[in-house]
Every structure is written in C-alpha cells, then in structure tokens.
Amino acid sequence: MNGGKSKHKKKLVMKELPVLQSESHLSTTVRGLPPSGIRKFFDIVVGIEDVISLGVGEPDFVTPWHISEACIYSLEHGQTSYTSNKGLLELRDALSNSVKEDMDLDYNPDEEMLITTGVSEAVDLAFRAILNRGDEVIVHQPCYVAYVPDIILAGGVPRIVETKLSDEFKLRPEDLAAAITGDVKALLLSYPNNPTGAVMSREDLEELADIVVENDLLVISDEVYHKLTYNGKHTSFAQLEGMKDRTIVLNGFSKSCAMTGWRVGYALGHSDFIGAMTKVHQYTMLCAPTMAQVAAVEALSRGDDDVENMKREYDRRRRLFVTELRRLGLPCFEPQGAFYTFPSIEGTGLSSEEFAEKLLNDQKVAAVPGNAFGACGEGFLRCSYATSREELMEAVDRIERFLDSL
Amino acid sequence: MKKEILEILEDNARATPAEIAILLGASEEEVSKEIEVLEESGVIRKYMTMIKWDKVDDGYVYAMLELKVSLQRDKGYDAIAERISRFSEIQSVRLISGDHDISATVRGRSMKEVAFFVTDKISTLDGVESTCTHFVLKSYKEHGVILYDKAKPKRLVITA
Questions:
Q1: Which of A247, A277, A302 is the last residue of a domain?
Q2: Identity of the residue in B4, B8, B155 whose CB atom sits nearest the CB atom of A58
Q3: Which of A133, A150, A364, B9 is buried deepest, with most CB atoms within 10 A?
Q4: Of A146, A194, A366, which has the smallest distance from its Cβ to B157's Cβ?
Q5: What digits encode the pLDDT tens for the residues A340-361?
Q6: A225 at the B interface (CB within 8 A)?
Q7: Which residues of A touch B144 (CB under 8 A)?
Q8: Tens digits of residue pLDDT in A308-320
Q9: Residue A351: CB partners within 8 Å, gap ≥ 6?
Q10: Cis peptide before A64 (omega within 30 of 0)
C-alpha cells in the first residue's frame, strides 16, 4: 500500500557498530573458574558409539515406579503450584521423622530444615549464606567437582587438603590442623566420598571434632551417599556430641532413591544457618519443584525397601568389580560407600587423562580421569559401578585388552 | 548368606558358585556347600529357563481356570487339588480366597485343545462343581519379568 512511495525511501546508511567485546562483559570470577575436568572429557566422548560407560555419577536404576506414580497422580490432581519456600510441610514432616530414625537427631521442620533443588543448590546456598569475601573453606580432595567453584562464586577461598590412598582417602586430623589459618571459617566434608568411595567412621570423625571446636569452624557435610554405605551404618558429623549446631547437613534423594533428574535435596542445621540459606533460596530458586517434592514424600514414606534392594545390588557389583580390577593388576582401594572404584593406573606410566583418553579411543570404555577431582587424583581413574553386571564384565574384558596392548 | 544365594539364583539359574562367591564376598566352597544343602532340603526345587515360545513357533495357548469344588471330609482341598496338579497340561494350581476355591493355569497348543481338556478332564472330576475358563490374550509380565519391549532410558555417558 505504500508501494508508490518506495522510490522516496531513504537510503539506509550502515553505521559501523563497535564489535561487542564479550570477554570484558563477563564476570572476572566466572572467567577465572577453570572448566570442569569432567566437562572436558565429556566433549571427547560425545560422538563415539557403543561406549560402555563407567563415567556416570548416577544410578543405572530408574526411579522406583511407585515414586514416579505418586508424582503423576499429583500432577493429574493439579498439584502444580509453588510450595512454601522451605518446601512442602508434608515433606519436611516426613523428613524430620526419617532423620530422627536414621540419625537419632531432632530437626524442627519449621526452622531447621530447607528443601532444595538437589544437593547442588544446597551446597551453593550454604557457602553463600556463611562466606564473606576472603573467608576460607577447607576442602578435602579428591572430591566432587562443584565445591571449589561454588566456594569461589560465593566469594570465598578454597583451601585444599589432599587425602591419600595410604590413609584410605580419609581426612586426617593432622592434615586438617595443618591447613588452618585465621581466615578459615568452615570445613567441607564429603563422605561417603565421590570419587574414592571412602567413608569416615564415627571414630575418624571424632578426631576431627576437637580441631573443629578449637578453631570455631562450621562443618558443611555433604552426605548424599549416606544410605550407600556397605560395612556398617553411616555416621553424620552432626551426630557427634555437641556438633549438631556446628554442622549443616546436606543431603538428598538422587543417589539412594535413583532420583537424580528430579532435583530434590535438603539442608539440616541450626535455625540461623537454615534461615540465612532460606533467604538466598527464596530470592533465587523460590522453591524446589513441587512434583519432585511430592515424589520425595513417597520415597521417604515407602521407599526403604527400594533403597535396600539397590544397595544390595551395588554391594555385589562393588565386590565383583574390585575383584576384577585387582585381577587385572590395577591396585584398587576397596570402596566402603557410594558407587565408585578409584583404581590406581600409575603403574602403566600413563597420566590419568592419557589413560582415560586412550582407553576410550582404543576400547570404547569411558571412565573419568582422577585429576578431574583435584590434582591429587592424578594417577587414578574413577570407575562407577552403577551399571549392570553384564556391562561391568564387558568393561573388564575391554580394560584387560587395553592393558595388554600397552 | 542363604537368602542372598537364593535371590541370585532366582534371578539367574546359571550363576555359578564361583560367581556368587565374588558377589557375596564368600569362598566358592562355602557357596557350593550352601547350595547343596538348599538342593537337598528341597528349598531349591528346580533350575529353569524363561522362554518366549511365541518367538520360536506358534507358541502356546494359556488359560486361567477358576474352579469351585466341594470339600472332602478329612482331606479338605488337598485331594482334589493334587489330582488336578497331576495333569501335565496344568501349569499351576493354587488354593485361593474369594468367590472360587482353586485357580489353575492350563497350557495347550490351541484353544480347542485347552477347551476340550477342561471339559473332558477337569469339569468331569468328582468334586468339581463349576469351572470358569479365561483364555490369556496377552502376557505383560511373568515371574517378575516384563515381557513387552521398552526402550532403555538414556543416561549421559559422563557426569560428575
């Protein structure tokens, strides 16, 4: 309709726009974060077919059907709104009972409990709630990849303490004591441990408690593998005498109930800490996904048998896999918890990354190089046994062929 | 250990004592001995294989029978139930609660064969008051094993 005017159209003059300098628009903190060693390896794996994966940090089981079904039922009945910031009261009540039974500790569902979007969020919240710029947090390595970046993002400074195979990857009191400076505010504990499968017994933890009190430290304890402990029962740092108020317990349903994708976890602790974490949570996450919280209620109420059954199967795989790795001549610490083995590959003369890459390219077995979990993980390989026994045995055959070819 | 051995064998009749020993952190001798005791005491009745026959040939026709029977003095349901059990066409016999007394499954090569077997051999038994035959159209799960094809859920190959 404006066709007649087209000849009068102004000629567009392209103005030279300055090129966006995206780097300078990024936060220096984020720019400074090293990329996850796991991510790097993931990029190599993508595109290779028929890989047997020992690289996965989640169960191979599907969420038990009654848990999924409870969620579906809630969706059918329109339970799709927000929950309270703290989480569904029904879930906090159920959790309070289950924690009482499990740990013999009383946490008030109103003030000492927060439902989070997975334990990952809880880790982030805990650091953000307690750290001032420059505050230090002691982290034992090898450990899960997120703690160090989360501390840095919260303005804190990680202080790494290395744990050793000769100590069964336990955090030794003398090493903890040696790492303490005036700026250390908290200790991050992560047992049963990813990637080593190490656990800390009550006695082991008690040796740390004195140092914690002497130096007025807080303990942030990620216990997401607590139900996957194979010899004896898991002890939480919060269970030690006088430690409950000093400890923020972080936990969730992902590993024990095969619910990784649901993203539901929780934090337990003194009301001041939980209150502060809730503040951050309400301005960022608002609440954990409602349907996942409903599923978690079902998992707590009727999921104990599932956990036991899955644990029994992991335990069998653990024995099978450790036996086989040792038969192949790879020295292997006997994991006591979680679902990882952490064999030493030092004897092959290859670095962790070289070993993992070659193993992947030659035999199509994916495992994670140990140094992804901290510098002291060099010389090791993380192999998850959260995969079927048939696949584990196939992986063993392939690793054997690989070792023979070296 | 006894229970764990049984669970493993129930899931896989071909598991060898050596394999079971590794899974349970026991010695092969211990496991072998335990299995022998379980076999001799009749806890382990038989080692079987689950077969999807309709993949091999025309497969079988199955029917579930619900029977009302009259109680026999001194013998209760046992005499009639045992009598029914002896037919090789009968796959299972169970005493049940509710509207009927005995539930049985029959296997045959055709519907006709199953139907005639029921009318000739079962309905005519002394003590059987009535039968109700339900032909199986499709089986979704047997002995705890899901029989329909389902895609394996995918996981990422590498995660933290």
A1: A302
A2: B155
A3: A150
A4: A366
A5: 999 999 999 999 999 999 999 9
A6: no
A7: none
A8: 999 999 999 999 9
A9: A369, A371, A378, A379
A10: no
